[in-house]
Specification:
heterodimer, A: 189 residues, mainly alpha, 2 domains, B: 314 residues, Glutathione S-transferase Yfyf (Class Pi), Chain A, domain 2, 4-stranded parallel beta sheet, 15 helices
């Protein structure tokens, strides 16, 4: 049975609230976030509906929605929310929980977005910094989409927009250690 | 001479090299000495906070700790994404010592975080610490005649609690700086709409949709060019512009300048040093407006007294 408003029974709501530092129960479904959100028309469920899912404890539905992957953290919604809910933080909490609990949305778009972030973090782990060309190339290889944006490459390279060099930082070791400790902390939670 | 700790961010050595080089010129003229954080690392934007909480704080925290060793009051950050991550980290760590202690355990060798250095975007530093008067005093070649749409994007002024700078809905700091340079800032409603930022590579469709609307509104505002202070905004609006034009069937031809390029131009640096050939959308058309006499705006006749409502009992 769904019980609205009872944080004690709705463990999903409690987890999201604790992680985001906002109280999702405050949401009164005005929809201002939806009309403000620049990407709501790309989402399975706009932010307002994700809020309601959390209030109702519909964990699977919220985790599997693409909405938290499409959220750009532009914070336009939270600036206008009459209940002052930090909606991007709520989206982030849902995403982090979904990752921790191994929920995988395998739609093509979400897979690509997630792959991009993994490649980015991997690159920072290896070099301490991010190298744009290398990242674009790896993204194309690892999503098996070799020719994406290739029409931009000659012009961008010619104009020196994207440098070719990749060299690790002096601090690359420190960054690797940071990653390892951060991972251990993540598991300890 | 003011001293400022400098965090360039990864794209300063890549797509936004012209932002970095013109920023250095401009700050030299404005009598600010930059001290780059030695051995700085990527701040993690935007992927770290998407995937994991600990790294999202740890990567910026390392830079903050290294910056504290330089003992300047403020860190100036060129890239808006880096600025946002560093500022979010600072605000959260300062408010939550337990979080600071936990994250600090990932970077024991670098030292302990104290939170003694302020974090500002370069726009905020220019507006608050240098000031319009100083900027105005260095202008030798005013940009009179050039009409610009100032585009701030999402990260320079939002969220308000974090940035504590300007307005989250309709900021004016960059507009005022452009006016101090002699340019005209247009009334531009999309100045804080999102350009699609980090989806540039992984979700190009979204970027073209969002950036397309921004270009459309900038053109409608009557601007000759767009001005930005963020490398992601610049590359989305400039590099993707030909594709956006192709897919929408509209022609914008709006060059996208970094605010520092326009400042350097107005301060008298030769155009040849400002890296204009790096732009995908050519800049010459827009710059040719400089020095042209602008016709005075048509005066709207204002009624001398309030129009009386028609009486109904006629």
């Amino acid at each position: 049975m769904i019980t609205l408003g009872s944080q004690g029974k709705n463990t999903f709501l409690a987890a999201v609230n604790a992680k985001s530092g906002s109280n999702v129960l405050e949401c009164y479904q005005c929809g201002k976030c939806v009309s403000t959100c620049p990407v709501s028309h790309f989402m399975d469920f706009p932010p307002r509906e994700i809020m309601q899912m959390i209030k109702l404890g519909l964990k699977n539905e919220a985790y599997m929605a693409n909405s938290h992957w499409f959220c750009l953290t532009c914070s336009a919604c939270s600036g206008r929310c009459p209940r002052e809910i930090d909606i991007p933080a709520v989206m982030e909490a849902v995403r982090h929980l979904a990752i921790e609990e191994n929920y995988v949305n395998d739609s093509k778009k979400v897979k690509e977005i997630r792959k991009f972030h993994e490649i980015f973090l991997d690159m920072v782990k290896r070099y301490g910094r991010n190298y744009e060309l290398r990242m674009m190339a790896e993204f194309n290889i690892r999503t098996r989409n070799l020719f994406k944006d290739m029409h931009l490459a000659p012009k961008a390279l010619l104009k020196g927009k994207i440098p070719l060099g990749v060299k690790p930082l002096k601090s690359a070791k420190a960054i690797k250690r940071m990653y390892e400790v951060a991972e251990r902390l993540e598991k300890k939670k | 001479m003011k001293k400022l700790t400098y965090f360039p961010g990864c794209s300063a050595h890549g797509t936004s090299e012209e932002f970095d080089s013109t920023l250095k010129m401009v700050l030299k003229t404005l009598e600010v000495q930059l001290e780059e954080i030695p051995d700085w690392n990527c701040c993690g934007a935007t992927s770290a906070h998407v995937m994991t909480e600990n790294l999202a704080y740890a990567l910026p925290m390392r830079n903050l700790v290294l910056a504290e060793r330089l003992e300047n009051d403020t860190i100036g950050i060129a890239c808006a994404s880096c600025y946002q991550r560093m500022k979010v980290t600072k605000v959260h760590l300062d408010a939550n010592p337990e979080l600071a202690r936990r994250i600090n355990s990932t970077i024991v060798e670098e030292g302990t975080y104290e939170g003694k250095t302020a974090v500002k975007s370069m726009l905020q530093f220019a507006y608050e610490d240098i000031g319009l008067e100083m900027i105005k005093s260095k202008v030798t070649k005013p940009l009179t005649g050039l009409k610009v749409a100032c585009y701030y994007g999402c990260l320079l002024t939002r969220p308000k609690d974090i940035t504590q700078f300007d307005s989250p809905e309709y900021p004016m700091s960059m507009d005022r700086i452009c006016e101090a340079l002699g340019a005209t800032a247009t009334e531009f409603d999309y100045k804080t709409e999102c350009c699609g930022a980090s989806f540039s590579i992984s979700n190009t469709e979204v970027v073209e949709n969002l950036s397309g609307k921004i270009l459309e509104m900038a053109q409608e505002s009557g601007a000759h060019a767009i001005v930005v202070a963020c490398p992601l905004c610049q590359s989305n609006l400039d590099m993707r512009q030909p594709d956006i034009e192709k897919h929408s069937g509209k022609k914008y031809g709006l060059p996208v300048f970094y605010i520092t390029q326009l400042m350097a131009l107005a301060f008298g640096y030769p155009a040849g040093e400002l890296r204009f050939p790096k732009h995908i959308v050519p800049v010459e058309g827009a710059l040719s407006n400089i020095g042209k006499v602008v016709p005075a705006p048509e005066k709207v006749k204002k009624p001398t007294k309030a129009v009386e409502a028609e009486s109904e009992d006629n």
